[in-house]
Design goal:
The chain is α/β, with parallel strands linked by helices and 258 residues long. The chain contains twelve helices and ten strands. The protein starts with a helix and ends with a helix. It binds ribulose-5-phosphate (5RP).
Length: 258
């Protein structure tokens, strides 16, 4: 791996413990003004100093994040669909690599939809993005999206999707926690981070997932709704940080919520 690529990845995944707490606020690219992210600047401001990286679109980055901020950016560069459209998997690359470079991003992120109608298109999107990333030293995060088929979140499907992403050259992969998550980690040769998914019933549920994922080999989280839809977003990101970077137990992390 070239120096620039390694350097950018090291800004996101802390080389001291090989872990990261990414804050995902890219949801608007297909969900619109989702609850608690109606005004992205207000959601991001209190949380940004606790995030190792921020995942978002170029529109929200330019409009809602101070350019003087030193937080590494993971730029969402796929889209072209919406929650009310016919098929969430019908995604294209929506940002030129030149614009990502202009924005000084540390990585670019794109969704793949393995097993969907547009599987081929999204996998070719990933391959092309990796080619572009290799040219300029920009790491690529592949997101194993499941669309509306939440039933796909099992180890068999996620191992398949994560492995394909890594085989096509993704430098790190974002997926979901599932039963037998260790199997997903073992068969994916690049770092894996987990999404939180829709807001869980309690904060404890989200902490349990983060803790289990780290114990089973995840390199961290790229979490959104379970942080900023919580009634205590700052407490929540602090608790997640403790689990990811300080090997805190769920009980210890829970204390940070108070
Ligand atoms: C959408 C995404 C989101 O960033 C991702 O799902 C993480 O957020 P959450 O923890 O809310 O699921 O990539 O495709």
């Amino acid at each position: 791996m070239d120096w620039g690529m390694k350097n950018r990845l090291a800004r996101i995944i802390n080389p001291k413990d090989n872990k990261t707490v990414m804050l995902a606020v890219d949801h608007g690219y297909f969900l619109g003004p989702v609850s608690k992210l109606e005004e992205p600047a207000k959601t991001i401001a209190p949380l940004i100093s606790y995030a190792d990286a921020l995942m978002l679109t170029r529109g929200v980055l330019r409009a809602s994040v101070d350019a003087a901020s030193s937080v590494p950016i993971v730029l969402r560069v796929s889209g072209g669909n919406s929650i009310v459209g016919k098929d969430l998997s019908n995604e294209s690359i929506t940002v030129a690599m030149e614009d990502a470079i202009r924005l000084n991003v540390s990585a670019v992120a794109l969704s793949i939809y393995v097993g969907s109608e547009h599987e081929h298109q999204t996998l070719v999107n990933l391959s092309r993005l990796v080619d572009e990333g290799q040219k300029y030293g920009i790491p690529v995060l592949a997101v194993t999206a499941v669309g509306k088929e939440l039933a796909k979140r099992d180890a068999r499907y996620l191992s398949l999707a994560c492995r394909i992403a890594a085989e096509l050259g993704a430098h790190f992969v974002k997926t979901y926690y599932c039963e037998d998550f260790g199997k997903v980690v073992k068969s994916c040769p690049v770092p894996l981070v987990i999404a939180g998914g829709p807001k869980l019933e309690t904060e404890l549920d989200a902490l349990n997932i983060a803790h289990a994922a780290i114990n089973e080999g995840a390199s961290g989280v790229d979490m959104g709704r379970n942080i900023w839809q919580s009634s205590n977003p700052v407490g929540m990101i602090k608790a997640i940080r403790a689990i990811v970077h300080e090997s805190a137990s769920v009980k210890e992390a829970q204390k940070l919520l108070k």
